[in-house]
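User: I'm putting together notes for a lab meeting next week and I want to include a structural view of one of the chains we've been expressing. I don't have a solved structure, so I'd like a prediction I can at least talk through. The sequence is below, exactly as it appears in our construct file.
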Amino acid sequence: MVAISAALQAALLTTRPYVYTTDLRRNGLHSWKGPPASTFLFTDLAFGSQSFSVYVDTSSAETWLASSSFICDIDGKTHPQADCNIGPLYTLDEDFARIPGRIFRQRYAPMIASGFPGTVPVTIAGLTTTTAASVAENLHNPGLTRFASGLVGLGFSPMTGDWTADSIATNFTHIPTKSLLTSLFEQHKISPQFAVSISRPSGKEVLSYGGVLTIGGLPHLEDPKVNATDDFASASFETYDSSELNETTHGLPLLADYVISVEGIYYGALGNMSVNSKPAQYLLDCGSPGIKIPIAHFNNWLAMFNPPLQGGAENEVSCSAPVPEFKFKIGGKLFPINPADLVQKWTDGRCYQTLSGSDGSGAPPYLLGDLFYRNVVAVHDWEKLEMR
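Assistant: Thanks for the context. Below is the predicted structure for the 388-residue chain, given as structure tokens.
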């Protein structure tokens, strides 16, 4: 069972059937070897009258922009701002009301953003709401938001990065704060759901169309750029143990990440598929690369290539090699992953398989990332507390 705010519960009683859509863009300009345009998705957002491009993330809930005076920290050393490849930068003005006695700090592995929170009118997908947001004054190893100005998190409010403290060097306490989505749902009384439909890159283009983010409902399924059908299944959001977030409301755990149970995975040759019917928790995160599955089944899947592949972070395959099928069972239905997402051509001209394995550690240990989202329209429903 999961707690939601009283204000959001009240908004559910008077929701309007309006849908607001904004395009996602893909930026695949990497400084490392990797698949072009693989994980960096951006959209447009404004703080007051200043407009920016921001990274989109479903595994965090805060919204922030890099300050015009931010410190660029790479591996513990201060660098010129240009080395962090972030911008344009936000100039603090009268639209932003700082909240005294609080700091903003969030880790994104390996990036760390810190600064101060406040309230500001934020516009996204044509909707404007005054909401909590932050200004980042320090960015450590900011590869996550390269070529953008900040981040918009689409997770639940307990995941925001607000803390009570005057300095990040002191003891501080986490303060769950209303996220941008929570404010939109409450103030505009739109249906509390959003959908992410990620497009599949068509080639080696650096900047490209990335899909759509729809607030309040579904995108147009007849759009040829939307990789989905009207055959929907649903899975309830779940909680899991976390060493970082232990907040409760009336004894109930607050929902944080989007976590669902996958009932099974199916892989192999058509008509002779291996089945893992043991349910497991998976994190849904459109901003993370790849798909992470139990290590034993990952190794079994690698062995089905011809010639068989060995376990490891990088497994090169022939670009023309047949790809073993791979499907997830969710909500009683099978969701196949397109072979084009299971083997990709990297910037070095070679092809590599894209799955990875986990030994079961972590919370949750398995991942449905960017590659999974390309194959579905993923509706995150806050009213029914489910993914469908």
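A couple of points you could mention at the meeting. The first strand starts at residue 20 and ends at 27. The longest helix spans residues 180-188.

User: Perfect, that's what I needed.
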